[in-house]
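DSBA-like thioredoxin domain-containing protein
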Amino acid sequence: MTYDSQIAFTLDTICPWTYLAKKRLDEALRRFRQSDQGKEVNFTVKYYPYQLYPEATKEGEDKYEWYKKSRYGNSEEKMKMYMALMTAYGQTAGIDFKFGGTVGNTMDAHRVVQHFQEEKGPEVADKIIQSLYAQYFQQEKHPSTDETLLKATTEAGIPEDEARAFIEDKNDGLIDVKNLVREQTGNGVDSVPTIIFEGKRRDITLVGAKEVEEYEKTLAAIVKESK
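Structure:
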């Protein structure tokens, strides 16, 4: 008999480390599902919202300058080191990181992810998130304009009329997603990615982007303890 386990993945769509973690977790799950153990536990990833930069405006500002100023004390040298590091990490996970574009408020992106996760299920939410990450980090798009969100929902297979109606009604689902963000903070989440693997005997929490092998080891531990 297969045991069902949820993986709670808390993210922000402008966090490069959550993109990296997602790619690595996806690879760990792919390997796991091809193994003999894959028949014993059925893992489902559910996404939860977090905002790293809640005071950001919807219009946003220059991403490169914001990173340099807010993260690296306006140091060009430190910014170059960060870009070299992320480029190298990205290459190992199939991500071609780019550092231009606009950083902006992600609330609308979270609103769309949560709504369609509830309506259409985790696989659709997964595809929306994949697109949001790729658009922001690889195509230098704004993280949450209507155009970005419409592209993400279309790529996830949601009919354009249905997606557009929800995306353009900025109040639809807003209170729910704000409550979820507060809930995550109340649950002790203070950085992302935070990933909780739910097990029969205990939950295992991993914070930060871990290596593929560490995610594999965690999946194996959940399987072992589910017997």
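The longest strand covers residues 3-11.
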